[in-house]
Design a protein that fits this description.
The complex is a heterodimer. Chain A is built from 5 helices and 8 strands, in the order βαββαββαββαβα. By secondary structure, chain A is an alpha+beta fold. The radius of gyration of chain B is 22 Å and the shape is globular. Chain B has 24 helices and 17 strands. Classes of the chains: A alpha+beta, B alpha+beta.
C-alpha cells in the first residue's frame, strides 16, 4: 500500500519539531534552515501551515531534470534526487509549481522530501498529528469522518 | 557537547566584534544560559556599576539544549544588572530567536559599552555586523520587526528588539523577540536602550549538532515528550487553556491579588479567565482565543493567539490591532485585570498587545497602574497629572490610556514608567507599593499561598514567581501537595524549587516542563547531549551554586538581608475573604530557617564556607 503525508494545518502549533526531525535525518544536525518540510506562520491570521513535497505522479521536477537525477522510488512513490547524478543546475526548482525542491548551497545539489525511505521523521516527530503518514488512497478519511459525525441522520426519525 | 563553545563579544563603544572560546570549566559548573552567563557577568562587571551606564553588560545566552529536539529546547536568557532593582536581572524567553542564535553557531552574545548612536546587531552565522539603526529609533517593536525584515530582504531572519518605552526610560522595559515573546522582567529592555542597541537580527543556517550520543538523545527526548503528553497539566491543561487555566483556581483559593493587593479575590475573575477567552463574543461570534501556539521545539504549546473585538472602544478605527497576536497569559491577565480591578477581556488583550508592541513588562506595568489607581483614589494623584483621566479601579479606559502613555513615555507615562516603588515614593506614599527589591509582585497573594511570600522576598531579581514556583506544590500538588496556608516546611520547599529552577533555566529548556518533569527526567536529556556526566544530583548542585552566585552578586551590589522583605500590607493586613481570611504572610516564621538551610548568616550574608563549598569567585 502506498502512503502519503497528510497535513492538517488546524492541528499545527508551529513548534518546528518536524523541521528538526527532517534535518536530523538528512543532515545529521538539528537545522530548520536545511529542512525539507517548512512551517509557515501567518501571524495576523493565527495560523500555522506545514508544507512540503506532495510527490506528484507526473512530477514537474522529474520531467525538467536534464540529467535524469530525479527518479521515482517504486516502493514509496517518492521522487528522489540521485546526488551522484545531480549537477545542481536548479532547473527542477524552477519547474516545481510548489517550491518544494530547493538548492542546498553546502552540497551544490538540490534537496527535497523523499519520505525518508518510507518512514517520514516529520510525521514521527509531530506532537499533534498535524502531519501523519496514511494510505495514499484515503488521505481524506479523517476529514470525512469529522464531517460524517456532524451529519444528521436522525432527521428521518422526526 | 551541545554547546557550540563559541562566544560572540560585541563592544558597542568601539563598534568592534570578536570571537572567543567558551570557558568549559565554567560550563561544567554552571551548565549554560542563566547560570553560565551569570558566571561571565560576575567575572566581568563591577557589582556597583550603574545599570544604565556603559559599564553594565548585557548578555544573551542559550543553553546546551537550546536548538535541539528536546521538547521546549528553544529558550534563551538575558543577564544584566537590572535598573528596577539594582540586583542581577535574568529574563528568560522562548519564541525562536534563541534556537536561531545557537544555529548560527553561538552559545552567547556579550554586549558591552555604549554605542555613540543607535545600532542593530546583524548575525548571519559567522558574519556579524553592527548596522546603523537611526531610522529605527523611535519605532515600536512591531514596526522595527517589519522594517528590518524589509531592509535585510530576509523573510526568515529572527528579531529581538526594544520599543519606544525602553527608549523613553521606562524602568521595566522588555526585550521582545518574534513579535510577542518577551525577556520580560526587570527592565532588561531598558538596559538594551541605554546601550543604543535597538535590535538583534539573527539567521542561523549551521544547525545544532555536536550531540554527544545522538542515538540515545533521540530516544530519551522522545520518551520525555511522551511524559509531557501524558501529564494532565502539560498534555491537556496548558495546551487547551494556557497558563490562564489558573485564573479561576487561584481566585477560588483566595490568592488572587486584587486592587493593588487590598483584596485577595476578584469578583470578575471569571470574565478574564481561560474559559472567558474561549467563549464566542456577541459581536462577531468568534472567541478571543484563536489558537494555541508553540515556541521553538515545544510539544506543550501553551501560547495564546488572540484577537480583540473590532468594535471594542480600544481598537475602534485602529485596524492595526484587528489581527491576531500574542494573547493573555495568566500573569498578564492578572496584572492588567484583577490587580487593576478591570474585568474587560478585550481591554486587557489590548493592553497586552501594546505591551508587546512597545516592549514593556505587563506584570510590572499592571501592578504600577494598580498603585497609581490607589494613589488616585487616595487623592494623591489627581486629574491634574493625568490629562483629566480618572484613574479608578475597574476603569478599562484608564488601563488602555495608561498603556498608551507608557508605550510613548509621554506625560504621565513617564511617571508610570518609574515602576510602582519609585512612583509611590515620588508621591510620598511608599507603603502603597507592592514590590520586593523594587520589582512588582506577580499573581499569587502570599497570604493565601504562604510559600510564595518567601519566594518573593528572597528572589534574586526582585518579586518573581518563576524563581521558585511553590504554587505547583501548594496548589496543584506537584510533586506533592503541601498546605498553602501553612508556613511549615516552606523554607525547605522554596530552597528546593529555587535550586532546581536555576538548573532548568540554565539548560535551554522551559520551566513549564517541570509540571511533568523533575530533574530526573531532565538529566538524561542533558547527559545524552553533553559531556560531563550529568545526573540529577549534579544539576541540582549546579542550581544551588547558581543561586548562591546570584545572591553573592546582589550582596556585593549593596543589597542586604533587609531587602528580603514584603510590604507591610501583606505582613499586617489580613486577607479579608476566602480560605485565607484572617491570614497574613508569615515571612518572619520562614526566613530564619531559610537562611540556615542556605548556609548563610542570620542576616542573610554568604559565609566563607558556603562560598568555598560551591567554588564561587573570591
Amino acid at each position: 500500500m502506498l502512503r502519503s503525508l497528510n497535513i492538517n494545518p488546524d492541528k499545527c502549533t508551529g513548534c518546528l519539531q518536524c523541521e528538526m526531525a527532517c534535518s536530523f535525518e538528512n543532515e545529521g544536525v538539528f537545522n530548520p534552515a536545511k529542512s525539507r518540510i517548512k512551517i509557515f506562520t501567518f501571524h495576523d491570521e493565527g495560523r500555522f501551515v506545514p508544507y512540503t513535497c506532495t510527490q506528484c505522479d507526473e512530477a514537474w521536477c522529474l520531467h525538467a531534470c536534464p540529467v535524469e537525477a530525479i527518479r521515482m522510488n517504486r516502493e514509496t512513490g517518492a521522487m528522489e534526487i540521485l546526488d551522484s547524478v545531480c549537477v545542481g543546475c536548479k532547473v527542477c526548482t524552477i519547474a516545481c509549481p510548489f517550491g518544494t525542491v530547493n538548492y542546498n548551497q553546502t552540497t551544490g545539489k538540490v534537496i527535497k522530501c523523499d519520505l525518508c525511505g518510507g518512514d517520514p521523521q516529520c510525521a514521527q516527530a509531530c506532537p499533534t498529528e498535524a502531519i501523519t503518514y496514511v494510505d495514499a488512497d484515503a488521505t481524506g478519511l479523517e476529514k470525512m469522518r469529522a464531517w460524517a459525525s456532524k451529519t444528521d441522520n436522525q432527521a428521518h426519525a422526526n | 557537547m551541545s554547546w557550540t563553545r563559541r562566544i560572540l563579544r560585541v563592544n558597542l563603544t568601539e563598534g568592534s566584534i570578536s570571537e572567543e572560546p567558551l570557558n568549559m570549566e565554567w560550563a561544567d559548573q554552571y551548565i549554560g544560559q542563566r547560570g553560565l552567563a551569570t558566571r561571565y557577568f560576575v567575572e566581568e562587571t563591577d557589582p556597583t556599576c550603574d545599570p544604565l551606564g556603559p559599564d553594565n553588560k548585557l548578555i544573551f545566552a542559550t543553553g546546551p539544549l537550546t536548538g535541539t529536539m528536546a521538547s521546549t529546547g528553544g529558550r534563551y536568557s538575558v543577564i544584566t544588572k537590572g535598573p528596577l532593582t539594582g540586583a542581577i536581572a535574568c529574563s528568560n524567553s522562548g519564541g525562536f530567536i534563541g534556537a536561531e542564535l545557537k544555529s548560527a553557531g553561538w552559545d552567547m552574545v556579550i554586549c558591552e559599552g555604549r554605542s555613540p548612536s543607535p545600532v542593530m546587531l546583524h548575525i548571519v552565522d559567522d558574519k556579524v555586523k553592527l548596522l546603523p539603526a537611526d531610522d529605527l529609533w523611535g519605532k515600536s517593536v512591531w514596526d522595527t520587526d517589519r522594517l528590518i525584515h524589509e531592509k535585510l530582504h530576509d523573510p526568515q531572519i529572527r528579531i529581538a528588539a526594544i520599543g519606544r518605552s525602553a527608549e523613553a526610560g521606562c524602568l521595566y522595559a522588555a526585550i521582545i523577540n518574534d513579535l510577542h515573546r518577551a525577556a520580560g522582567r526587570s527592565g532588561v529592555g531598558t538596559v538594551m536602550a541605554s546601550k543604543n542597541l535597538k535590535a538583534m537580527a539573527v539567521r542561523g543556517t549551521q544547525g545544532v549538532g555536536n550531540i554527544k550520543d545522538p542515538k540515545s538523545f533521540m530516544q530519551v527526548t522522545a520518551e520525555q515528550k511522551q511524559v509531557l503528553a501524558e501529564n494532565a497539566v502539560t498534555g491537556q491543561g496548558l495546551p487547551a487553556m494556557g497558563t490562564q487555566v489558573l485564573m479561576n483556581v487561584i481566585n477560588e483559593i483566595g490568592a488572587l491579588p486584587t486592587n493593588n493587593m487590598r483584596e485577595v479575590q476578584f469578583k470578575d475573575a471569571n470574565k478574564i479567565s481561560a474559559e472567558a477567552m474561549a467563549e464566542p463574543r456577541d459581536s462577531d461570534g468568534k472567541p478571543n482565543l484563536t489558537t494555541n501556539a508553540a515556541c521553538f521545539g515545544c510539544t506543550i504549546a501553551c501560547g495564546r493567539i488572540s484577537t480583540i473585538d473590532k468594535g471594542h472602544f480600544t481598537v475602534e478605527n485602529k485596524p492595526e490591532y484587528w489581527g491576531n497576536s500574542g494573547g493573555l497569559e495568566y500573569e498578564a491577565a492578572w496584572a492588567l485585570g484583577a490587580d487593576t480591578g478591570v474585568g474587560d477581556l478585550d481591554a486587557l488583550t489590548y493592553a497586552n498587545f501594546v505591551c508587546n508592541e512597545d516592549g514593556f513588562d505587563p506584570i510590572s506595568f499592571g501592578a504600577t497602574v494598580a498603585a497609581a489607581m490607589e494613589l488616585f483614589e487616595e487623592g494623591v494623584i489627581t486629574t491634574g497629572q493625568t490629562d483629566g483621566m480618572e484613574l479608578r479601579f475597574g476603569s478599562a479606559e484608564a488601563l488602555a490610556w495608561c498603556a498608551e502613555k507608557v508605550a510613548s513615555g509621554e506625560g504621565f507615562g513617564a511617571d508610570l514608567g518609574l515602576g510602582s516603588k519609585r512612583l509611590c515614593e515620588k508621591y510620598g506614599r511608599p507603603e502603597l507599593s507592592m514590590t520586593v527589591k523594587g520589582q512588582e509582585f506577580p499573581a499569587y497573594d502570599p497570604r493565601g499561598v504562604q510559600g510564595m511570600g518567601l519566594t518573593y522576598a528572597t528572589s534574586n531579581r526582585g518579586a518573581c514567581h518563576l524563581r521558585s514556583y511553590t504554587v505547583a506544590s501548594e496548589v496543584l500538588g506537584i510533586p506533592e501537595k503541601t498546605d498553602p496556608l501553612s508556613v511549615d516546611g516552606k523554607a525547605g520547599l522554596v530552597k528546593a524549587f529555587q535550586d532546581a529552577t536555576a538548573a532548568v533555566d540554565s539548560t535551554g529548556l522551559c520551566v513549564f516542563t517541570t509540571f511533568a518533569w523533575s530533574l530526573d527526567n531532565i538529566a538524561p536529556q542533558v547527559d545524552a547531549a553533553c559531556e560531563g556526566g550529568w545526573t540529577a544530583e549534579k544539576l541540582l548542585e549546579a542550581g544551588e551554586r547558581i543561586w548562591n552566585l546570584e545572591r553573592d552578586y546582589n550582596m556585593r551590589a549593596g543589597l542586604t538581608g533587609a531587602d528580603d522583605s514584603l510590604p507591610k500590607r501583606l505582613l499586617k493586613d489580613a486577607a479579608k475573604t476566602g480560605p485565607a481570611e484572617g491570614k497574613v504572610a508569615g515571612l518572619d516564621e520562614m526566613l530564619p530557617e531559610y537562611y540556615q538551610l542556605r548556609g548563610w548568616t542570620p542576616d542573610g550574608q554568604l559565609t566563607a564556607e558556603t562560598r568555598s563549598r560551591f567554588g564561587l569567585p573570591a
